[in-house]
Amino acid sequence: MSRIDELIAELCPDGVPLRALGEVGTFTRGNGMQKKDLTDSGIPAIHYGQVHTRYGVWTDRTVSFVTTAFASKLRKAHPGDLVIATTSEDDAAVAKAVAWLGSEDAAVSGDACIFGHSLDPKYVAYFFQSEQFQEQKRRGITGTKVRRVSGDTLSRIRIPVPPFEVQREIVRVLDTFTALEAELEAELEAELEARRLQYAHYWNSLLSPGHGWRRTTLGELAEVFDGPHATPKKTESGPWYLSISSLKNGHFDFSESAHLADHQLEQWTRRVAPQAGDTLFSYETRVGQAAHWDCNESAALGRRMGLLRPRASLVNPRFLTVVYRGPQFQSLIRSKIVQGATVDRIPIAKMATWEIVVPPLAEQARIVAILDKFDALVNDLSSGLPAELAARRKQYEHYRDRLLTFKEAAA
Fold this sequence. Notes:
Number of domains: 3
Structural class: alpha+beta
Strand content: 15-25%
CATH architecture of the largest domain: Alpha-Beta Complex
Number of strands: 26
CATH topology of the largest domain: Adenine-n6-DNA-methyltransferase TaqI, Chain A, domain 2
Number of helices: 13
């Protein structure tokens, strides 16, 4: 039996009462503070947007302040109160709350409300994260683009109110779980960063010219094309219309691209249509980004996108993408960039004349094989990290919801 079970058996064996939040506290709207009013020192201040982006379950210090004179006009959270963001663009984030545990009052902006109450502050803040709270909250959300919840709606939400000893033990357990989750996240991020640095080291070393490498031009190794200089009408399905935003770490993220109608494809591929083995790259805004096209699907280049079609007798298609993204060629790109009034660009018409040094085909294949293994490792970690964190968070949420669920005491 856990310590919480022991406390429940001792202090509330017949169940835990449910109380409306309005019975155990009061809701007061924040007022009058905008981002432009925030300063780096003065009276602690919490802007509703910061509740979404800068704070977790609780905080004992603010990231922003207001002047003493301005603070005199504002409503304030007392130590132990909750500060609740009452607006958001999505339902899940509406009513995100942070317990204010500082040593003095904190000014609170509009689009937020202050919940003064008689419970353990962290206990209430954890309850605001629970599915029990979310389910009740969803019934009272209003608005279309901007979603809102009012203090009156929140005041009707019912919360389990066990004895303080139980509240504090639940907080202790959830604080421990939260700290372990943060520690795991830091460890996984450090592992991923170490692998990335190792990958970059090998990449730089393997692409450093050695015996047997020869100096040539990009135009000898590949044909250089640019795509259309306009944008078609996009559709929900059909051939891919590729975006430069889809070029990510040598691969394509198709969630960043759109489609065009079948009958449009010929018009938008008159210059060139991507073929398996091509290297696609951005020549404006996301200069330096490139990806290997290994698909046989119909597609058209988007604006600001170019294409290298390798001559397979001279260059390994995968090696061309690897060397394009390598440190030596990226340095060459930076030296050739034309700075414009709005965006920087590669002078694509001159790319064929750029000098490049390449090894024999057999060495190209060896380099590709080594770097592909590192790439797979880094990408596996990149995909594995969010998956591992998501699994731990789901486990945490399940455990938290169980801890905050009690047998209800008879009325």
